Amino acid sequence: APVPEMPGPITGPAEVCKQTPATFSITGVFGATSYSWTVPVDVTITSGQNTTNLSVLWGNTPGTVSVIAGNNCGNTNPSVLAVTTMEIPPVPGIISGPAMVCSNTNIDFSIEEVTGAISYLWSVLPDALIISGQGTKTINVDWGSTPGTVSVLAQNSCGSGLPGTKDIGIESLPSAAGVIAGKDSVCKSQSGYQYSVDSI
To answer: Is residue 57 a contact partner of residue 19, using CB atoms and an 8 Å limit?
Structure first.
């Protein structure tokens, strides 16, 4: 019997999340009695060695998955798939926007782009409403009348990172001024009169 033909292309993800399961497969090779898979050193084969379907737990580094087919006459050249890795995005940076807002006002908050993120999940608590921009780097918010928090986390297909947060206080109008202290009658063309109110 001849040596089997080289296996066809490996089916499986070309990009995997770090520390997650992945599956790779090939179509069965005519005349093959064995299959031998090779994976990067920090990838653990969980099942499927010597079959056409391989399950692994991927590690932290990119690398290649390869497979050869064999029989008593010898082994084929390998079929190879290059695999890159990605991870959950990091915590977003500083949230731009005011730390103090007036009651019932319309405010924008934004962040710089986060490496590896494909979307952003914002929340505003407890007394605010996101009007536009959910999923993007900038949101427009109708703030209510109580202090609260703006938070945002970055997301990709591996999941969501930890949130960045910003505490928001409420600015209120000053209280009314009290009685003005000072003379209520003055002489013409005179200066030096002083008037004052208590601190507000």
So the answer is: yes
